[in-house]
Amino acid sequence: MGTGFRQYPVGVTAIREGSMHWPLWRVAVAERSMEPALRPGDWLLVRRSVRAGRPVRVRPGQLVIAGHPGKPGLLLVKRAARPELGGWWLESDNVGVGEVDSRSFGAVRSELIEGRVLLRYWPMRRR
Asked: Which of 28, 65, 80, 85 could form a disulfide with 115 if both were Cys (CB 3.0 to 4.6 A apart)?
């Protein structure tokens, strides 16, 4: 299964090497795992932690961008279902397209949560 999106960083600013990041990312959804909330071709604005090593604040029900725990470098867009010991249980909205979520790899460590989805900005209206 795919990652669920392609990432397009808006920019990265460093005060000291690795200490601060630009807090906004734009990402394009590439897979169907989050339908009906997100569809391929949707563009998202994502907030990530400003300070390296500081976890992103997440609440149950929010959409997040997370690193795949078993495949370094692979990022996923998922819904934070509930906090677990040391991390989060992440789920797909569309279970019919396969299990690329916590049902297959377990809870995701908090440090793998890269950002929280703020909004879908494109397309403006659904067909």
From this structure: 65
Chain centre to alpha carbon of residue 97: 18
Question: What mean pLDDT is predicted for residues 64-75?
Answer: 90
pTM of the model: 0.80
Mean pLDDT of 95-114: 91
> Of 1, 23, 28, 19, which is closest to residue 10 (Cα–Cα)?
23
- The answer to whether position 99 is within a domain reads yes
Lowest-pLDDT range of 1-5, 38-42, 58-62? 1-5
Strand intervals (E) in 5-122: 5-9, 24-29, 43-48, 63-67, 75-84, 87-91, 108-109, 113-122
Question: β-pairing, 24-29 with 43-48?
Answer: antiparallel
Query: Is residue 77 situated within a structural domain?
Result: yes
Asked, for residue 127, whether it belongs to a domain, the answer is no
CA atoms within 13 A on the CB side of 22: 11
